Amino acid sequence: MRTLIAGVGLLAACFSEQPRPAPPLLFLTLGKAFVRSPDTLNGTVGANDPDGIDSVWLTVGSVPIGGWDGVLATEFTTSFRVLIGPGFTGGDRLPIRVKARDVAGFQGELDSAVTVSP
């Protein structure tokens, strides 16, 4: 009887959900949805990964804003402040991209945008 119980327990362990490697989960919080040209955009960027965060990058428009060392923490958060220069017209959308890599080498991306108001 004990053998049967141990066998059933072993069989259940084989079919249970196992954690799978995955890219970091990313988040982006913007201080405002619309900016003027020129203006300043503030926000927070972060990443979570049970394996640990290697690095996080932020790009606004085509300009790389920052690259941060995740110091192998499972949760990483930092704030940023970006100057939006002159030359944009009302209705332009500035793409915002967050990328992060975990210590296992998996990379995640999150895309967003902010709109230039007239």
Outline of this structure?
With 118 residues, the protein is mostly beta strands. It has one helix at 2-15; strands at 25-30, 34-35, 39-48, 53-60, 63-69, 75-84, 93-102, 107-116.
Radius of gyration: 21 Å
Structural class: mainly beta
Taking the sheet with the most strands, its summary is: 5 strands, mixed
Shape: elongated
Indicate the low-confidence ranges by residue numbers.
none
Number of contiguous helices: 1
What is the beta-strand fraction?
over 45%
How would you explain this protein's 3D organization?
- The chain is mainly beta.
- 12% of the residues lie in helices and 53% in strands.
- The protein has 1 helix and 8 strands.
- The strands form 2 sheets. It has a 5-stranded mixed sheet with strand order 2-8-7-4-5, with no helix packed on it. Strands 1-3-6 form a 3-stranded antiparallel sheet, with no helix packed on it.
- It is elongated and about 50 Å long.
- The chain starts with a helix and ends with a strand.
- The model has no long low-confidence stretch (mean pLDDT 89).
